[in-house]
Design a protein that fits this description.
EC number: 1.11.1.6
Structural class: alpha+beta
Largest sheet: 10 strands, antiparallel
Helix content: 25-40%
Order of helices and strands: HEEEEHHHEEEHHEEHEHHHHH
Mean pLDDT: 96
Catalytic activity: 2 H2O2 = O2 + 2 H2O
Oligomer: single chain
Strand content: 15-25%
Region (Disordered): 1-20
Number of helices: 12
Protein name: Catalase
Family: Belongs to the catalase family.
Radius of gyration: 25 Å
Bound molecules: protoporphyrin IX containing FE
Low-confidence stretches: none
Length: 485
């Protein structure tokens, strides 16, 4: 094999990569040393902004295979035939900590899935929890500030975490989930994924359905106790990355079965819960799980920075047959992601191989900007409509329209029969075994007892009491006992 020659960025051979050029032996450096200048300058620009949330992540490629006929509910092409396979890319993540954090921590996990469909990329950007802490996107920046590092102490502060929750009774359901056994997955392979939001599917006849996605792990759920996690995080901060990478390298390809809950659109208005409230689930007794297909991860990225760090998922990347519901949180997210990525990666991030469509090509009149690569041919016009057979709109509806009524205003989400912030949190608590309840209460008390202000503790206790009197009493006793220690 011929020897590979080291070159500069412009392809010129490098004569010496060990000694900088100097004026005489032992003299000062020469500015004509292109290799030195380019190397140092390039190095200074290696880091880009990390994701403002979900900074730490691991990802893999794979495929989604349809196993069941769902054409009665959606016309999405990638779901239209049993046996059809679509290439996918899935990025898992923790939420609150920055890139330097550890994997084995109590935190929701991101489950961001890109389907490279023949109708363009479909991104389903979910979590490993079916619900979320808040139900209005206007609260998101405050929520995240309270969970991330404090501007003065530079670390996560129980005072901030619990003060936000004291003012967010709607978080009680998600807190109960997070502080319970599933709050620390043993690995990314051993947890479920959820779309969490309600989405709208439309079938070929134009009929609309609201759906919730559930990816059930075929590896079985495995979780860590707080003690096991603390030990693992110290031993191997990259434990989830190690596990995923090594499993796929060994050919032990993780998989998930996708189910959906389907609600005919006409049932939404009178359902006992607001179906567009992200802090609520739809009990399976109301809307059972319907199997859709299988997701398999079978290939590791070759380069973590190029493919994982630069990957970009956006909840508004839909394909015909799948659209947004009126969930306010989802609507806020439709804006936030691509905006974050234009800042984090630049306006042309959709041209990067991991983000570009694979089963079709993007054809539009977006032009130029930093790092532009796609300029089209000399015959392409850069305006539309044109008389030169340039790409043109289809005229086909992407999904059924949503009915709206009323006045504009800063409204709270509408209440349905069972809608309060505590009922489902109480239901989740009552479902737990005695041991599970003990661990839940110990985890909550471990955090809440560190809060310095008594009024913040009281407000949080009131939320647990409102969910279930026994729940509140147990947490209060555990907090008091720890504070007396
Ligand atoms: C990442 C905003 C709620 C799941 C992000 C990013 C932003 C963001 C700006 C970074 C995007 C990037 O730089 O590429 C928001 C806002 C929310 C919200 C404004 C509420 C209004 C949620 C919810 C979920 C979720 C409810 C799950 C159901 C994720 C995931 C990522 C992410 C999985 C990481 C995506 C990746 O792996 O690249 N979010 N988020 N977020 N968010 Fe959200």
């Amino acid at each position: 094999m011929s020897k590979r020659v080291l070159t500069t960025e412009s392809g010129a051979p490098v004569a010496d990569n060990q000694n900088s050029a100097t004026a005489g032996v032992g003299g000062p450096l020469l500015i004509q040393d292109q290799q030195l200048l380019e190397k140092l300058a390039r190095f200074n620009r290696e880091r880009i902004p990390e994701r403002v949330v979900h900074a730490r992540g691991s990802a893999a490629y794979g495929y989604f295979e349809v196993t069941d006929d769902v054409t009665q509910w959606t016309s999405a092409k990638f779901l239209n035939t049993v046996g059809k396979k679509t290439e996918t890319f899935l990025r898992f993540s923790t939420v609150a900590d920055s890139l330097g954090g550890a994997d084995a921590v109590r935190d929701p996990r991101g489950f961001a899935l890109k389907f490279y469909t023949e109708d363009g990329n479909y991104d389903l950007v979910g979590n490993n929890t079916p619900v979320f802490f808040i139900k209005d996107p206007i609260k998101f920046p405050d929520f995240i500030h309270s969970q991330k590092r404090d501007p003065f102490t530079g670390k996560q502060e129980p005072d901030n975490v619990w003060d936000f929750w004291a003012h967010a009774p709607e978080a009680t359901h998600q807190i109960t989930w997070l502080m319970g056994d599933r709050g620390i997955p043993a690995s990314y392979r051993h947890m479920n994924g959820y779309g969490s939001h309600t989405y709208q599917w439309t079938n070929a006849a134009g009929e609309a359905f609201f759906v919730k996605y559930h990816f059930k792990t075929n590896q079985g759920i495995r979780c860590l106790s707080s003690e096991q996690a603390a030990e693992l995080a110290g031993k191997d901060p990259n434990s989830h990355q190690t596990d995923l990478l090594q499993a796929i390298e060994r050919g032990v390809n993780p998989s998930w079965t996708l189910y959906v809950q389907v609600m005919p659109a006409a049932e939404a208005a009178d359902y006992r819960f607001n179906p567009f409230d992200l802090t609520k689930v739809w009990p399976h007794a109301d809307y059972p799980l319907q199997r859709v297909g299988r997701l398999v991860l079978d290939r590791n990225p070759e380069n973590v920075f190029a493919e994982v760090e630069q990957s970009a998922f956006s909840p508004n990347n839909f394909v015909p047959g799948i659209t947004a519901s009126p969930d306010k949180m989802l609507q806020g997210r439709l804006f936030a992601y691509a905006d974050a990525q234009r800042y984090r990666l630049g306006v042309n991030h959709t041209l990067l191989p991991v983000n570009a469509p694979k089963a079709t090509t993007a054809q539009n009149y977006g032009r130029d900007g930093f790092m532009a690569q796609r300029n089209g041919s000399r015959f392409d016009k850069n305006y539309e409509p044109n008389s030169y057979q340039g790409p043109a709109e289809t005229g086909d509806a992407l999904g059924a329209p949503l009915a709206v009524s009323g006045w504009t205003g800063t409204h709270a989400a509408p209440l349905h029969t069972k809608d309060d912030d505590f009922f489902q949190a109480g239901e989740l608590f009552r479902l737990m075994s005695e041991d599970e309840k003990k661990r839940l209460v110990a985890n909550i008390a471990g955090g809440l007892s560190q809060v310095s202000r008594e009024d913040v503790i009281e407000k949080n206790l009131a939320h647990f009491y409102a969910a279930d009197a026994d729940y509140g009493k147990r947490v209060e006793e555990a907090v008091r006992a720890l504070r007396e220690d």
